[in-house]
Specification:
39% helix; 13 helices; seven-stranded mixed beta sheet; binds pyridoxal-5'-phosphate; globular; 2 domains; Aspartate Aminotransferase, domain 2; single chain; Aspartate Aminotransferase, domain 1; alpha/beta
């Protein structure tokens, strides 16, 4: 065949000659992503099918129904957003905020601040209440803030990945109903792993991610919207100011009409179906109990080694533990050592806790006693080398 005529000469700049991808074995015990379950990886690697194929449409319904189970909700509008947890976070705000709406954000860590930033971008009038990083809110301060600010939405984080705090939720939904306000909850680090009852807690909007408690790689952001939030969306006087995340458009695809909106990431949804299938097979109660038991094993082991946990026991999050870096230890160098020598990832502190804590995740597939014991063994054998000798510290001082 004669070569095709090429109107311009082809430059070889940027043309890398690479080998096929090869990734190292890692045990991801940080804030996420967590390792994916092997059968989820198998599901992801299947040949794509069309996003309007009847088989795919059946799968969409299964994913929605299993998400409702994972969240313990009957919400009709329950879908995996194409995008990570932040896309689903943005979807909750984009669909329900109208310019000038008052949004109250209860901030107790980094992801509360992200909610503040996003709500402001949708022109909400944002008010905040704050707790120190490592603490949670009580009902009295939430009620006082609802009375003082009279918001249309209260937004908060159930499982604060930056601090390792699990916000107690009992009673907050009732307060929101009493003060005529929607309750929006970040469940990114709790879905599938920590007790979560969207309907019983009267949560109106929630979002999550695929890469933590669900043992799937990052790429989907589960989203759910209850009837009160749907009513607010239906009463909007303007269009949702974000085309991609507009739930009324997305529901024409995920609802019964099956109208094309965007090309769904079909393989991600194959993986999500498998992840949720595994969760249903294990049972929510068993999955929650497993995460709790392994977290308690980790907490006891760390304390036995003389390490201090940042969060008081009643508020501790089973999926993410913050451990204070002892005086004189180079925390970054130690976590780098774990990665380089043993292929284990643990996280460092974020924001107010930067340089002060390690963040250890036990999420989904990775929440096992074997992983806990392996990590504890390494803290026991390796940490001493990263403590400065007292003489050296004295010389610096
Ligand atoms: C509590 C919380 N909210 C939101 C997010 C954002 O999710 P993503 O990074 O998947 O966009 C994260 C990410 O770790 C998180 O931990």
């Amino acid at each position: 065949m004669p070569p095709l005529p090429v109107p311009f000469s082809i430059s070889s700049t940027h043309r890398l000659g690479l080998d096929p991808i090869a990734t190292p074995e890692r045990l991801l015990l940080g804030p996420g992503p967590s390792n994916a379950h092997p059968t989820v990886l198998q599901a992801l690697s299947r040949m794509p099918i069309g996003h309007l194929d009847p088989l795919y449409i059946e799968l969409m319904g299964e994913v929605q129904e299993l998400l409702r189970y994972a969240w313990q909700t009957d919400n009709r509008l329950t879908i995996p957003m194409s995008g990570t947890g932040s896309a689903a976070m943005e979807a909750t705000l984009a669909n329900t905020i109208e310019p000038g709406d008052k949004v109250l954000v209860a901030v107790m860590g980094y992801f509360g601040l992200r909610l503040v930033d996003m709500a402001g971008r949708y022109r909400a009038e944002v008010a905040t209440i704050e707790r120190p990083w490592g603490e949670a809110f009580d009902l009295a301060e939430i009620e006082a803030a609802l009375i003082a600010h009279r918001p249309t939405i209260l937004a908060m984080v159930h499982a604060e990945t930056s601090t390792g705090v699990c916000q107690p939720m009992e009673g907050i939904g009732e307060l929101c109903r009493r003060h005529d306000c929607l309750l929006l909850l970040d469940t990114v680090t709790s879905l599938g792993a920590v007790p979560l009852h969207i309907d019983a807690w009267q949560v109106d909007l929630a979002y999550s991610c695929s890469q933590k408690g669900l043992s799937c790689p990052p790429g989907l952001g589960p989203f759910t919207m209850g009837p009160r939030a749907e009513a607010k969306l239906a009463a909007r006087s303007d269009k949702v100011p974000n085309w991609y995340l507009d739930v009324s458009l997305l529901n024409q695809y995920w609802g019964s009409d099956r109208v094309y909106h965007h090309t769904a990431p079909v393989n991600m949804n194959f993986g999500m179906r498998e992840a949720l299938r595994l969760l249903a097979e294990e049972g929510l109660d068993a999955a929650w109990a497993r995460h709790r038991a392994n977290a308690e094993r980790l907490w006891a082991g760390l304390e036995r080694l003389g390490l201090e946990l940042h969060v008081s026991e009643p508020l501790r999050l089973a999926t993410l533990t913050t451990v204070r870096i002892p005086e004189g230890v180079d925390g970054k160098a130690f976590s780098r050592h774990l990665l380089d020598r043993f292929g284990i990832e643990v996280g460092g502190g974020l924001g107010a806790l930067a340089g002060k804590v390690w963040r250890i995740g036990l999420m989904g597939y990775n929440s096992t006693p074997e992983n806990v014991d392996r990590l504890l063994g390494l803290f026991e054998s390796e940490l001493a080398a990263f403590r400065s000798a007292p003489a050296a510290v004295a010389a610096i001082a």
